[in-house]
Amino acid sequence: MSKELMTEEFLEALGEGCYSAIIPSEGFKLINAGEPLETMPLFGNRLQMALKITLPLQKGGFVALPFNKEGHDLEEAIKDVQGKEIKLLCPVGELLSVKRDFFDGDVPLFQQFANLADEDEMLDFASRHGSLYSKITVLESLSPNGGAVYLESISDWYDEINLVKTALKLIEIYENRSWAKDLKVIESGVVGALYGIEGTSFCVEGPPPKATGKVDEAIFRLLLVMFFNDKLRRHQTTVGYGLDRAGGFISAIYPSSLASAIWLQLAQSFFGDAPNERMAKRCFICGQYGNKASMRKRSKGEFKGRYYHISCYAIFKQQKYRERTAKKEKRTFRGRRRKQFLVDSL
Hints:
Elements: H1 3-6, E1 18-24, E2 28-32, E3 36-37, E4 62-66, H2 74-81, E5 87-91, E6 95-101, E7 103-104, E8 107-108, H3 109-114, H4 119-129, E9 137-139, E10 147-151, H5 154-176, H6 179-182, E11 183-188, E12 193-197, E13 203-206, H7 217-234, E14 237-243, E15 249-255, H8 258-271, E16 280-282, E17 289-291, E18 295-297, E19 307-309, H9 310-328
Parallel strand pairs: 4-10
Antiparallel strand pairs: 1-6, 2-5, 3-4, 7-8, 9-10, 11-12, 12-13, 14-15, 16-17, 18-19
Helix pairs in contact: 5-7, 5-8, 7-8
């Protein structure tokens, strides 16, 4: 082999520690579908615009509608949302392109998103990380009701949160090797079957189970891959190149939206091909994900090879010590705001 080939250098795996987000300067506010907009959102370059008819002035103004009404007759869509409580996220102020890390402290982006519990938390998260799809569609019309601006709804956020929670459940099942118990066969035929997981939105078609009716590892791995591929195709990323701080070439994957950044980090963390800048691992003690760089790996015992938060380990050991002390002194152990863990012993 020639000296030139022996000394050839290759770029490292695709990766960047941050992503670009489109964030309104004054955050988001909630409005009801069918509500007229006083002013149009100030569009950024990455926002998708679909202008059906170009008019010098929209006399009827613009009405806010959810994305699921896009492509419907405008008059019918407006009538359909009237009197219903359909909350939409409306950007306020100039739309700015900013860089955001994949971690908030040690908490990965997808775990923060999965933990969102109500509308206030969603608004706060959106104001820091941008809208889910980085998209606003505008329809200008000659209708007396004016045109329409299609926006994300709170329902869109709840649906995506449930899908991310479903992915986390799939990973938990895989790590616990409990697919035969947790994965249910809803329908089964000669050439295929429909599978589901109770309490989640998981519903995927795959090959039929074996004659025993039990799901084996090969089928579960295939269903898991199919589930992630579907989400990654729906929220696509772009491969590109740039320069590092030293002026060297780097290769990177650029998420097209907040949703694509969430699914990219989650998928790469599970399949193990994420760069260190965005690799997250699940803590086997508390069940939450953290930054791999600040976690520890169990080297022995039942959970050998699994990762854990240093803080979780310390709190767990402290709680067990207090329990043992209370038992020795023959008194009841009452822990204030005691943190709940997934394990009983280490």
